[in-house]
Amino acid sequence: MIARKALPAEFLDFNRKWGAPGRNMAVDGMNPQQRLADPDPKRFGPFGFQFPNEIRTFEYPFAASHVPPGPRRVLDVGAGLSGLQFVLDMQGADVTVVDPAAAISDDEAPTEANFWLVLRHADHAKLNELFGTSVTLVGEGVQHWDHPAESFDTVVCLSVLEHVDPVEAREMLDAITRLLKPGGQLLLTVDLFLDLKPFGVLEQNVWGRSHDVYGLLRGLPLRLDEGERGELLGFPEFDFDRVVKLLPELLVSKHYPVMSQSMVLTKVEPEVSFS
């Protein structure tokens, strides 16, 4: 489904409790790097070290609502310094973040005051210390990560795939599926841009592309348990006219014309492929 402006009450409660998706940087004039250097950085909360986006008001509680508190192994793909990883850890999960942005050495990372917070291992370690968490950070692309198969109960991948081309996106989904335990869940969101086809005229923008989601998933041993097929780009049931009529109800970022398509997929037996 495409996220709506009207969020469920439990999503609003999650955002209030944890300060998601992060305070507007204009409120105090501090970027994430400056917040980390603050004498009391913990006051910004787990979501205080990222640049917020309106669609994240849906995405974070959506993912959290499908990860019950308690012991379970969770992989967060491309999370950066997102607060969700620390919240899930605090609720009992064993969380691993795999993100190629962390592959750069701390010495090589940019330090300009206006630079978006790069994924330094030292910064991630500091946030673990601040929040009493033990999230593991792996500086690799998930498709290149040599890790035992069927290791995770849940994989979270929020607004990541649109930043890469279709070939790489499929490679990432292949790897994610390999890492999921049988019966494990993939909590997936993929951006849908209003300035790109089929709504606009462009094929790609500064943030990425609107993927054929059906094409990316087709043939994988995954079952769509949640997700309105008529609102997922590329699906045979995708209803362009219906989505356009729904626009007044849909959650569109104020910073860029983008929406969030969300799915819950379960890993099934290999002989049962996505269709």
Distance between the termini: 17 Å
Identify the overall geometry. globular
Largest sheet geometry:
7 strands, mixed
What is the SS-derived class? alpha/beta
How many strand segments?
Answer: 7
Q: What is the number of helices?
A: 9
Give the oligomeric state. Answer: single chain
Helicity range of the residues?
25-40%
The CATH class label is Alpha Beta
- Under CATH, the topology can be stated as Rossmann fold
Give unreliable regions as ranges: none
Reading the helices and strands in chain order gives: HHHHEHEHEEHEHEHE
Fourth CATH level, the homologous superfamily? Vaccinia Virus protein VP39
* Average predicted confidence as pLDDT: 93
Residue share in β-strands: 15-25%
Strand order of the largest sheet: 3-2-1-4-5-7-6
CATH architecture title: 3-Layer(aba) Sandwich
- Tell me the count of domains: 1
Radius of gyration from the alpha-carbon trace, in angstroms: 18 Å
Characterization of this structure:
The radius of gyration is 18 Å and the shape is globular. The two termini are 17 Å apart. It is built from nine helices and seven strands. Strand 4, helix 7 (166-179) and strand 5 (180-193) form a beta-alpha-beta unit. Helix 1 crosses helix 4. The protein has a single domain (9-267), classed as 3-Layer(aba) Sandwich (Rossmann fold). It has helices at residues 9-18, 25-28, 32-36, 56-64, 83-90, 121-131, 166-179, 213-217, 240-246; strands at residues 73-77, 94-98, 136-138, 152-158, 180-193, 222-226, 258-267. The chain has a seven-stranded mixed sheet. The model has no long low-confidence stretch (mean pLDDT 93). With 275 residues, the chain is an alpha/beta fold.
